[in-house]
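Q: Here's a chain of 437 amino acids. Please give me its 3D structure as C-alpha coordinates.
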Amino acid sequence: MAGVRRKAPGQHSQVWAKLRTLWQEKHLILFKPEYTLMVVSLLWLLEIGINVWVIQKVAYTEIDWKAYMDEVEGVINGTYDYKELKGDTGPLVYPAGFVYIFTALYYITSHGVNIRLAQYLFAAFYLITLLLVFRIYNRTKKVPPYVFFFVCCASYRIHSIFVLRLFNDPVAMLLLFGAINLFLDGHWTLGCGIYSLAVSVKMNVLLFAPGLLFLLLSEFGLIKTIPKLTLCAAIQLLLGLPFLMENPLGYMNGAFDLGRQFMFKWTVNWRFLPEWLFLSRYFHLLLLSAHLLTLLLFAVRRWKRPGQSVLDLLKEPSKRKNPAQKHTEDQLVLILFASNFIGMCFSRSLHYQFYVWYFHTLPFLLWSGGVEKLAPLLRLLVLGLIELSWNTYPSTEYSSAALHACHLVMLLSLWLAPGPAPTPTQDEGAPEKDKQL
Protein backbone atom coordinates (compact mmCIF):
# COMPACT_ATOMS: atom_id res chain seq x y z
CA MET A 1 0.00 0.00 0.00
CA ALA A 2 1.43 3.35 -1.08
CA GLY A 3 2.60 5.72 1.65
CA VAL A 4 2.83 2.99 4.30
CA ARG A 5 6.30 2.25 5.56
CA ARG A 6 6.81 -1.43 6.25
CA LYS A 7 9.18 -2.68 8.90
CA ALA A 8 12.06 -4.73 7.60
CA PRO A 9 12.06 -8.37 8.73
CA GLY A 10 15.31 -7.78 10.56
CA GLN A 11 13.71 -5.15 12.81
CA HIS A 12 11.15 -7.65 14.13
CA SER A 13 13.89 -10.18 14.85
CA GLN A 14 15.89 -7.55 16.75
CA VAL A 15 12.90 -6.64 18.92
CA TRP A 16 12.17 -10.29 19.68
CA ALA A 17 15.85 -10.87 20.45
CA LYS A 18 15.83 -8.01 22.98
CA LEU A 19 12.63 -9.29 24.58
CA ARG A 20 14.04 -12.81 24.73
CA THR A 21 17.24 -11.54 26.35
CA LEU A 22 15.23 -9.50 28.83
CA TRP A 23 13.16 -12.56 29.79
CA GLN A 24 16.25 -14.72 30.15
CA GLU A 25 17.93 -12.11 32.37
CA LYS A 26 14.82 -11.17 34.37
CA HIS A 27 16.50 -12.30 37.58
CA LEU A 28 19.37 -9.86 36.86
CA ILE A 29 17.27 -6.79 36.06
CA LEU A 30 17.64 -5.53 39.62
CA PHE A 31 21.40 -6.13 39.64
CA LYS A 32 22.72 -4.98 36.25
CA PRO A 33 23.17 -1.19 35.91
CA GLU A 34 22.24 -1.30 32.20
CA TYR A 35 18.62 -1.84 33.32
CA THR A 36 18.65 1.36 35.38
CA LEU A 37 16.36 3.27 33.00
CA MET A 38 13.71 0.55 33.03
CA VAL A 39 13.64 0.21 36.82
CA VAL A 40 13.68 3.92 37.64
CA SER A 41 10.93 4.61 35.09
CA LEU A 42 8.64 2.16 36.86
CA LEU A 43 9.61 3.53 40.27
CA TRP A 44 8.96 7.11 39.14
CA LEU A 45 5.44 6.19 38.02
CA LEU A 46 4.90 4.43 41.35
CA GLU A 47 6.07 7.56 43.15
CA ILE A 48 3.18 9.55 41.67
CA GLY A 49 0.73 7.31 43.51
CA ILE A 50 2.82 7.28 46.70
CA ASN A 51 2.91 11.07 46.88
CA VAL A 52 -0.83 11.38 46.29
CA TRP A 53 -1.46 8.79 49.01
CA VAL A 54 0.84 10.57 51.48
CA ILE A 55 -0.81 13.94 50.84
CA GLN A 56 -4.33 12.52 51.19
CA LYS A 57 -3.77 10.16 54.13
CA VAL A 58 -0.96 11.57 56.27
CA ALA A 59 -1.53 14.69 58.32
CA TYR A 60 0.32 17.84 57.29
CA THR A 61 2.62 19.26 59.99
CA GLU A 62 3.15 23.01 60.21
CA ILE A 63 6.77 23.95 60.87
CA ASP A 64 8.14 26.70 58.60
CA TRP A 65 5.55 27.25 55.84
CA LYS A 66 3.62 29.94 57.73
CA ALA A 67 6.90 31.66 58.64
CA TYR A 68 7.93 31.62 54.97
CA MET A 69 4.63 33.20 53.99
CA ASP A 70 4.93 35.89 56.70
CA GLU A 71 8.45 36.73 55.52
CA VAL A 72 7.56 37.14 51.85
CA GLU A 73 4.37 38.98 52.79
CA GLY A 74 6.57 41.60 54.43
CA VAL A 75 8.41 42.07 51.12
CA ILE A 76 5.11 42.25 49.22
CA ASN A 77 4.01 44.99 51.62
CA GLY A 78 7.09 47.03 50.74
CA THR A 79 9.65 46.09 53.41
CA TYR A 80 13.11 45.56 51.89
CA ASP A 81 15.18 45.83 55.06
CA TYR A 82 16.15 42.24 55.93
CA LYS A 83 16.35 43.18 59.60
CA GLU A 84 12.61 43.90 59.56
CA LEU A 85 11.53 40.71 57.78
CA LYS A 86 10.41 38.09 60.28
CA GLY A 87 8.14 35.09 60.64
CA ASP A 88 6.84 32.91 63.46
CA THR A 89 10.16 31.08 63.75
CA GLY A 90 12.42 34.13 63.65
CA PRO A 91 14.06 36.50 61.13
CA LEU A 92 14.45 35.84 57.42
CA VAL A 93 17.78 34.02 56.99
CA TYR A 94 17.67 32.96 53.32
CA PRO A 95 18.99 34.78 50.22
CA ALA A 96 16.81 36.72 47.79
CA GLY A 97 16.09 33.83 45.42
CA PHE A 98 14.08 32.24 48.23
CA VAL A 99 11.98 35.41 48.50
CA TYR A 100 11.06 35.46 44.80
CA ILE A 101 10.24 31.75 44.55
CA PHE A 102 8.14 31.68 47.71
CA THR A 103 6.44 34.92 46.72
CA ALA A 104 5.24 33.09 43.62
CA LEU A 105 4.07 30.22 45.84
CA TYR A 106 2.36 32.76 48.11
CA TYR A 107 0.18 33.97 45.27
CA ILE A 108 -0.44 30.53 43.75
CA THR A 109 -1.63 29.15 47.11
CA SER A 110 -4.00 32.05 47.90
CA HIS A 111 -1.62 33.92 50.19
CA GLY A 112 -0.27 30.65 51.58
CA VAL A 113 -3.66 29.49 52.87
CA ASN A 114 -4.24 26.65 50.39
CA ILE A 115 -1.93 24.11 52.02
CA ARG A 116 -3.21 21.18 49.97
CA LEU A 117 -2.29 22.92 46.71
CA ALA A 118 1.14 23.73 48.15
CA GLN A 119 1.60 20.05 48.96
CA TYR A 120 0.84 19.04 45.39
CA LEU A 121 3.27 21.66 44.11
CA PHE A 122 5.96 20.19 46.34
CA ALA A 123 5.03 16.72 45.13
CA ALA A 124 5.75 18.02 41.62
CA PHE A 125 9.09 19.36 42.90
CA TYR A 126 9.82 15.91 44.31
CA LEU A 127 9.01 14.12 41.05
CA ILE A 128 11.11 16.57 39.01
CA THR A 129 14.00 16.11 41.46
CA LEU A 130 13.75 12.34 41.05
CA LEU A 131 13.85 12.70 37.26
CA LEU A 132 17.03 14.76 37.51
CA VAL A 133 18.60 12.35 40.01
CA PHE A 134 17.68 9.28 37.98
CA ARG A 135 19.11 10.87 34.85
CA ILE A 136 22.45 11.26 36.65
CA TYR A 137 22.41 7.63 37.77
CA ASN A 138 21.40 6.45 34.31
CA ARG A 139 24.27 8.39 32.76
CA THR A 140 26.87 7.01 35.17
CA LYS A 141 25.43 3.47 35.57
CA LYS A 142 27.36 3.12 38.80
CA VAL A 143 24.63 1.75 41.07
CA PRO A 144 22.62 -1.51 40.69
CA PRO A 145 18.90 -0.82 40.12
CA TYR A 146 17.65 -2.56 43.27
CA VAL A 147 19.14 0.30 45.33
CA PHE A 148 16.60 2.72 43.85
CA PHE A 149 13.83 0.96 45.76
CA PHE A 150 15.55 2.31 48.86
CA VAL A 151 15.79 5.78 47.32
CA CYS A 152 12.07 5.84 46.49
CA CYS A 153 10.22 3.62 48.91
CA ALA A 154 12.27 3.28 52.08
CA SER A 155 12.61 6.91 53.14
CA TYR A 156 9.68 8.32 55.04
CA ARG A 157 11.78 11.33 56.04
CA ILE A 158 12.38 12.53 52.46
CA HIS A 159 8.71 12.33 51.51
CA SER A 160 7.94 14.18 54.71
CA ILE A 161 10.43 16.97 53.99
CA PHE A 162 8.86 17.55 50.57
CA VAL A 163 5.10 17.12 50.91
CA LEU A 164 4.37 17.15 54.66
CA ARG A 165 6.70 19.95 55.82
CA LEU A 166 7.10 22.16 52.71
CA PHE A 167 10.68 23.19 53.54
CA ASN A 168 12.73 25.34 51.16
CA ASP A 169 15.58 22.78 51.10
CA PRO A 170 13.91 20.68 48.34
CA VAL A 171 13.64 23.71 46.06
CA ALA A 172 17.36 24.42 46.40
CA MET A 173 18.25 20.78 45.72
CA LEU A 174 15.97 20.60 42.67
CA LEU A 175 17.91 23.49 41.13
CA LEU A 176 21.22 21.93 42.19
CA PHE A 177 20.51 18.62 40.46
CA GLY A 178 19.38 20.57 37.40
CA ALA A 179 22.77 22.29 37.35
CA ILE A 180 24.63 18.97 37.65
CA ASN A 181 22.70 17.60 34.67
CA LEU A 182 23.77 20.65 32.67
CA PHE A 183 27.40 20.07 33.67
CA LEU A 184 27.12 16.47 32.46
CA ASP A 185 25.82 17.77 29.12
CA GLY A 186 28.73 20.20 28.81
CA HIS A 187 26.63 23.35 29.39
CA TRP A 188 28.95 24.83 31.99
CA THR A 189 27.91 28.47 31.77
CA LEU A 190 24.18 27.75 32.01
CA GLY A 191 24.89 25.20 34.72
CA CYS A 192 26.78 27.81 36.75
CA GLY A 193 23.80 30.14 36.40
CA ILE A 194 21.36 27.51 37.70
CA TYR A 195 23.82 26.61 40.45
CA SER A 196 23.87 30.24 41.58
CA LEU A 197 20.06 30.25 41.62
CA ALA A 198 20.18 27.22 43.91
CA VAL A 199 22.54 29.08 46.26
CA SER A 200 20.10 31.99 46.25
CA VAL A 201 17.43 29.72 47.74
CA LYS A 202 19.57 28.25 50.52
CA MET A 203 23.25 28.49 51.37
CA ASN A 204 23.79 24.77 51.90
CA VAL A 205 24.39 24.45 48.13
CA LEU A 206 27.73 26.18 48.73
CA LEU A 207 28.99 22.82 50.04
CA PHE A 208 29.24 21.77 46.38
CA ALA A 209 31.30 24.87 45.54
CA PRO A 210 34.82 23.49 46.24
CA GLY A 211 34.19 20.53 43.93
CA LEU A 212 32.69 22.78 41.27
CA LEU A 213 35.66 25.16 41.44
CA PHE A 214 38.06 22.23 41.03
CA LEU A 215 36.14 21.00 37.98
CA LEU A 216 36.00 24.46 36.40
CA LEU A 217 39.75 24.95 36.83
CA SER A 218 40.42 21.46 35.46
CA GLU A 219 38.15 22.03 32.49
CA PHE A 220 39.00 25.63 31.58
CA GLY A 221 41.93 26.98 33.61
CA LEU A 222 41.81 30.15 35.71
CA ILE A 223 41.24 32.76 32.98
CA LYS A 224 38.19 31.06 31.49
CA THR A 225 36.85 30.14 34.93
CA ILE A 226 36.67 33.77 36.06
CA PRO A 227 33.71 34.71 33.76
CA LYS A 228 31.70 31.76 35.11
CA LEU A 229 32.41 32.77 38.70
CA THR A 230 31.51 36.34 37.76
CA LEU A 231 28.19 35.11 36.39
CA CYS A 232 27.45 33.36 39.69
CA ALA A 233 28.26 36.51 41.64
CA ALA A 234 26.29 38.75 39.25
CA ILE A 235 23.16 36.62 39.71
CA GLN A 236 23.46 36.94 43.49
CA LEU A 237 23.95 40.69 43.17
CA LEU A 238 21.02 41.14 40.79
CA LEU A 239 18.62 39.07 42.89
CA GLY A 240 19.63 40.84 46.08
CA LEU A 241 19.74 44.34 44.60
CA PRO A 242 16.45 45.68 46.11
CA PHE A 243 17.56 44.54 49.56
CA LEU A 244 21.16 45.67 49.12
CA MET A 245 19.98 49.15 48.18
CA GLU A 246 17.85 49.36 51.32
CA ASN A 247 20.28 47.89 53.87
CA PRO A 248 23.34 46.12 52.43
CA LEU A 249 24.77 45.00 55.77
CA GLY A 250 21.38 43.80 56.94
CA TYR A 251 20.94 41.71 53.81
CA MET A 252 24.44 40.19 53.89
CA ASN A 253 24.24 39.41 57.61
CA GLY A 254 20.78 37.93 57.26
CA ALA A 255 21.05 35.98 54.01
CA PHE A 256 24.68 34.81 54.27
CA ASP A 257 25.30 34.51 58.00
CA LEU A 258 27.99 31.82 58.14
CA GLY A 259 28.33 32.18 61.91
CA ARG A 260 24.67 31.61 62.79
CA GLN A 261 24.26 29.68 66.01
CA PHE A 262 22.17 26.49 65.96
CA MET A 263 20.00 25.19 68.81
CA PHE A 264 21.24 22.06 70.54
CA LYS A 265 17.76 20.55 70.89
CA TRP A 266 17.43 20.16 67.08
CA THR A 267 20.83 18.65 66.30
CA VAL A 268 20.87 15.25 64.62
CA ASN A 269 24.63 14.72 64.50
CA TRP A 270 26.09 16.06 67.77
CA ARG A 271 23.64 14.83 70.43
CA PHE A 272 26.39 12.91 72.27
CA LEU A 273 28.30 16.14 73.05
CA PRO A 274 27.64 18.33 76.09
CA GLU A 275 25.72 21.46 75.11
CA TRP A 276 28.51 23.82 76.14
CA LEU A 277 30.91 22.13 73.71
CA PHE A 278 28.32 22.08 70.95
CA LEU A 279 27.96 25.87 71.30
CA SER A 280 31.70 26.55 71.63
CA ARG A 281 33.26 28.74 68.93
CA TYR A 282 36.52 26.81 69.33
CA PHE A 283 34.67 23.62 68.43
CA HIS A 284 33.24 25.36 65.36
CA LEU A 285 36.72 26.49 64.29
CA LEU A 286 38.01 22.95 64.74
CA LEU A 287 35.25 21.59 62.49
CA LEU A 288 35.93 24.26 59.88
CA SER A 289 39.65 23.49 59.90
CA ALA A 290 38.98 19.76 59.54
CA HIS A 291 36.54 20.46 56.70
CA LEU A 292 39.02 22.59 54.76
CA LEU A 293 41.92 20.20 55.38
CA THR A 294 39.88 17.19 54.18
CA LEU A 295 38.80 19.06 51.05
CA LEU A 296 42.42 19.98 50.33
CA LEU A 297 43.59 16.39 50.80
CA PHE A 298 40.88 15.03 48.51
CA ALA A 299 41.59 17.68 45.87
CA VAL A 300 45.33 17.00 45.86
CA ARG A 301 45.36 13.23 46.42
CA ARG A 302 42.06 11.89 45.10
CA TRP A 303 40.63 14.32 42.53
CA LYS A 304 43.82 15.52 40.84
CA ARG A 305 45.43 13.08 38.44
CA PRO A 306 48.79 11.63 39.55
CA GLY A 307 51.64 13.44 37.89
CA GLN A 308 49.56 16.59 37.41
CA SER A 309 50.73 19.76 39.12
CA VAL A 310 48.25 21.83 41.10
CA LEU A 311 49.57 24.93 39.32
CA ASP A 312 48.73 23.30 36.00
CA LEU A 313 45.06 23.64 36.87
CA LEU A 314 45.43 27.42 36.67
CA LYS A 315 46.62 27.25 33.07
CA GLU A 316 44.45 26.82 30.01
CA PRO A 317 44.22 23.11 29.10
CA SER A 318 46.02 23.69 25.79
CA LYS A 319 48.98 25.33 27.54
CA ARG A 320 49.57 22.67 30.18
CA LYS A 321 52.78 20.66 30.23
CA ASN A 322 50.94 17.37 29.82
CA PRO A 323 47.87 16.91 27.62
CA ALA A 324 44.65 17.81 29.41
CA GLN A 325 42.14 15.03 29.91
CA LYS A 326 38.49 15.74 30.56
CA HIS A 327 36.87 14.18 33.59
CA THR A 328 34.59 11.27 32.91
CA GLU A 329 30.93 11.56 33.90
CA ASP A 330 31.62 9.32 36.92
CA GLN A 331 34.49 11.53 38.08
CA LEU A 332 32.51 14.74 37.58
CA VAL A 333 29.59 13.51 39.67
CA LEU A 334 31.86 11.96 42.29
CA ILE A 335 33.81 15.19 42.85
CA LEU A 336 30.62 17.24 43.29
CA PHE A 337 28.90 14.70 45.53
CA ALA A 338 32.04 14.11 47.61
CA SER A 339 32.54 17.86 48.09
CA ASN A 340 29.06 18.16 49.53
CA PHE A 341 29.42 14.99 51.62
CA ILE A 342 32.64 16.22 53.24
CA GLY A 343 30.79 19.37 54.25
CA MET A 344 28.03 17.27 55.80
CA CYS A 345 30.56 15.23 57.78
CA PHE A 346 31.97 18.34 59.45
CA SER A 347 28.76 20.35 59.76
CA ARG A 348 28.30 22.31 62.99
CA SER A 349 24.78 20.90 63.20
CA LEU A 350 22.43 18.90 61.02
CA HIS A 351 18.67 19.33 61.37
CA TYR A 352 16.09 16.86 60.12
CA GLN A 353 15.25 18.72 56.91
CA PHE A 354 18.95 18.75 56.02
CA TYR A 355 18.75 15.05 55.16
CA VAL A 356 17.66 16.03 51.65
CA TRP A 357 21.01 17.80 51.19
CA TYR A 358 22.75 14.48 50.53
CA PHE A 359 20.15 11.69 50.60
CA HIS A 360 20.02 11.18 46.82
CA THR A 361 23.82 11.19 46.56
CA LEU A 362 24.45 8.44 49.13
CA PRO A 363 24.09 5.41 46.80
CA PHE A 364 26.50 6.90 44.26
CA LEU A 365 29.07 7.65 46.97
CA LEU A 366 28.78 4.19 48.49
CA TRP A 367 29.10 2.41 45.15
CA SER A 368 32.09 4.61 44.26
CA GLY A 369 34.03 3.62 47.35
CA GLY A 370 36.88 1.16 47.65
CA VAL A 371 35.20 -1.59 49.69
CA GLU A 372 34.56 -4.18 46.99
CA LYS A 373 35.01 -7.25 49.19
CA LEU A 374 32.37 -6.09 51.67
CA ALA A 375 30.33 -4.19 49.11
CA PRO A 376 26.79 -5.67 49.17
CA LEU A 377 26.38 -6.11 52.93
CA LEU A 378 28.33 -3.09 54.13
CA ARG A 379 26.77 -0.64 51.68
CA LEU A 380 23.22 -1.67 52.51
CA LEU A 381 24.01 -1.64 56.22
CA VAL A 382 25.37 1.91 55.98
CA LEU A 383 22.30 3.08 54.04
CA GLY A 384 20.01 1.48 56.62
CA LEU A 385 21.84 2.94 59.62
CA ILE A 386 21.87 6.43 58.09
CA GLU A 387 18.15 6.20 57.44
CA LEU A 388 17.54 4.99 61.00
CA SER A 389 19.64 7.82 62.45
CA TRP A 390 17.69 10.47 60.53
CA ASN A 391 14.36 8.92 61.53
CA THR A 392 15.14 8.79 65.25
CA TYR A 393 13.24 11.69 66.83
CA PRO A 394 14.39 13.21 69.03
CA SER A 395 17.96 12.26 68.25
CA THR A 396 19.88 10.28 70.85
CA GLU A 397 23.53 9.80 71.70
CA TYR A 398 23.41 6.45 69.92
CA SER A 399 21.71 7.72 66.75
CA SER A 400 24.21 10.59 66.44
CA ALA A 401 27.16 8.27 67.06
CA ALA A 402 25.83 5.80 64.47
CA LEU A 403 25.49 8.62 61.92
CA HIS A 404 29.12 9.70 62.45
CA ALA A 405 30.29 6.08 62.24
CA CYS A 406 28.55 5.69 58.88
CA HIS A 407 30.02 8.97 57.65
CA LEU A 408 33.49 7.82 58.67
CA VAL A 409 33.10 4.50 56.86
CA MET A 410 31.98 6.31 53.71
CA LEU A 411 34.77 8.88 53.93
CA LEU A 412 37.44 6.19 54.31
CA SER A 413 35.87 4.21 51.50
CA LEU A 414 36.02 7.24 49.19
CA TRP A 415 39.65 7.81 50.16
CA LEU A 416 40.56 4.20 49.38
CA ALA A 417 38.70 4.16 46.07
CA PRO A 418 40.75 4.05 42.84
CA GLY A 419 41.61 7.57 41.72
CA PRO A 420 41.75 8.96 38.19
CA ALA A 421 44.33 7.50 35.82
CA PRO A 422 47.72 9.22 35.71
CA THR A 423 48.10 12.08 33.27
CA PRO A 424 50.06 10.83 30.24
CA THR A 425 53.19 12.70 29.35
CA GLN A 426 53.55 14.32 25.96
CA ASP A 427 55.69 11.39 24.80
CA GLU A 428 53.14 8.85 26.00
CA GLY A 429 50.33 10.71 24.27
CA ALA A 430 52.18 11.05 20.95
CA PRO A 431 51.68 8.69 18.02
CA GLU A 432 54.20 5.86 17.72
CA LYS A 433 55.87 7.28 14.61
CA ASP A 434 56.39 10.64 16.38
CA LYS A 435 58.07 8.85 19.29
CA GLN A 436 60.48 7.16 16.89
CA LEU A 437 61.38 10.53 15.42
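Q: Can you summarize the key feature?
A: The beta strands are 86-87, 90-91.
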